[in-house]
Design goal:
This protein has a single domain (14-173), classed as minor pseudopilin epsh fold (3-Layer(bab) Sandwich), CATH 3.55.40. It has one helix spanning 14-65, and strands at 69-75, 79-80, 92-96, 110-114, 121-127, 133-135, 145-151, 157-162, 168-173. The longest helix is centred in the first third of the chain and has 52 residues, at 14-65. With 181 residues, it is α+β, with helices and mostly antiparallel strands. Strands 1, 2, 3, 4 and 6 form a 5-stranded antiparallel beta sheet that branches. Strands 5-7-8-9 form a 4-stranded antiparallel beta sheet, covered by helices on one side. The model has no long low-confidence stretch (mean pLDDT 87). It is 29% helix and 27% strand. Strand 7 and strand 8 (157-162) form a beta hairpin.
């Protein structure tokens, strides 16, 4: 056969196309769970950062205003939640607390409101900060304690420690609902 009559194939056959698609589906099936885990970890990290930033905001406002500032679970309309174990998962308020007590005095004292809308998590306070956190003008916390950020979807759990000196520390938590990490 002469060179002029040879057929040149420049496209893909149906078999090659189907094999390529099957390979792409297999790679995606392997990558999607890893991507979902990566996204869940990023969300957890952002929630821990958001809560820590809120606590640090309260501390910095206490120092800046040279007056105590408190954070407590609740809303501006209802005030601070009370009870044996208030639930921080619904949100919290940051407010001026001139008498260093966790008593919300209404709108004029309100500094910031946080709604906790991250549904795969619960947020519970323990030890001295169950009812709330108060920072003195020195930046020291009235009481030490911790907040447990617990994943309801089986993911990682975290503990945010509030030291009496006002410093925060974040650590991984093996099991939520316990007094220890």
């Amino acid at each position: 056969m002469s060179r002029r009559h040879e057929a040149r194939h420049t496209g893909l056959t149906l078999v090659e196309l189907v094999m390529g698609m099957a390979l792409a589906v297999i790679v995606m099936a392997l990558a999607i769970p890893s991507l979902q885990a990566l996204m869940a970890n990023a969300q957890r990290s952002s929630v821990v950062t958001w809560i820590s930033a809120s606590l640090l905001y309260g501390r910095s406002e206490a120092i800046k205003q040279a007056s105590p500032v408190s954070l407590c679970p609740g809303t501006p309309q209802a005030g601070c939640e009370s009870g044996k174990q208030p639930d921080w998962s619904g949100g919290w308020i940051v407010f001026r607390a001139p008498d260093a007590a966790i008593r919300y005095q209404g709108e004029p004292s309100l500094l910031r409101t946080h709604r906790f809308i991250h549904s795969p998590f619960t947020l519970k306070a323990h030890a001295g900060i169950r009812q709330g956190v108060t920072y003195r003008a020195s930046g020291f916390a009235e009481h030490a304690g911790w907040l447990d950020l617990c994943s309801t979807d089986g993911g990682e759990n975290h503990r945010i420690l509030v030291h009496a000196a006002g410093r925060l520390e974040v650590e991984d938590l093996n099991q939520c609902g316990t007094g220890t990490g």
